[in-house]
Amino acid sequence: MTDTINNPSSHEATKDREEFKELLKDKAFLQIPKAGDLVKGTVISITKNEVKIDLPGYRTGVVRGNELYNESEEFAGLKPGEEIEATVVDLENENGDVELSFRFAGQQKTWTTLDNLRKSGERVKVKIIEANKGGLMVKVLGVVGFIPVSQLSPDNYPRVQGGDKSKILERLRKIIGKDIDVKVLDVSKEENKLILSEKQIWEEEQKENIAKYKIGDIVEGEITAVTEFGIFLKFNDLEGLIHISELAWQRIDDPQALYKIGEKIKAIIVNIQGSRIFLSIKRLQDDPWKDVLEKYQIGSKVKGKVLKVNSFGLFVELDKDIHGLAHVSELGNKNPNDVHAGDELEFTIISIEPKDHRLGLSLGEPKEHKNAKTQKHEDTEEAVKAEKKPEAESKE
Question: Counting C-beta atoms within 10 Å of the first and last residue's C-beta, which end of the chain has fewer, N or C?
Fold first, then answer.
């Protein structure tokens, strides 16, 4: 005790050590920033050319030049004593201050905000500023984002016959300037990537409506699009696809020859997959194949019109409802290349399968058919599947 009283410097040294220990407990004191870090500080002074900021536990920072002017609007209302964020550009400039940037800080905050939007699933209203063949460009908080065609809602999806890229671009350009609601799908500051979706919002809105319907329900609506793979029908703010194979019991090559946009029709729901609804027109009609054995018999001669020639053989129209297939092995002396769509020829019926909607024809002398599981019949089945394959359902 006497030593401490007689030696004031010893007392001061002890006090200094205690204060230093307290500083060591302060995490801010230990965190020396590095270039690229986002730091917080208090505004010390503001002039026309620079803003000085106190960085607690370190030193004074300064924002000046382009780093100040480029963000002048956002930080125009700054006042001394306010807490502010900035990004470290250089730990020491020519004056010994930490060089800071509002611009980089603003960018960092923007990307953080965008990632938070992705996590929360919050909707964002954006304006379409440009289009290319792959989708649309928009701006979100100053960052250019991309909406792929596949992420557009049915209202803005460019359904184009044959998928013509130039026509798709033409359709997309028509909605430049339009405001739409989107959700953030993917964010990457490092890759400068921002991917958005309009379709996700549309799908969520459909859930409640779709829940009102079930398979087998009959709906009435308006045709919104006619494509090579089918037509789209809008009803009660929902939209469903009627695939070309579900338009009629007979073969259809071109839906546009039968249906027009704006036409009102009825259809039956045959499948629901999430937000996707699949409809059928033909299932509202009597199946003409149920009476086929009353009209045609195996072994009888019939005249038919060739509808299409392919590697499997000939697709033939016997009447407006019943179509048959003359397998390539049943063309007799004829070469498939010698037969053309529109030709009328005489055939012999060699098989009828009402349940499977198949009728086999022959141009030459009918061969013996021991059962329906021969390779020829398997090929025939593949031919029918190929004709009915929903090749473009994924384009919905």
Answer: N
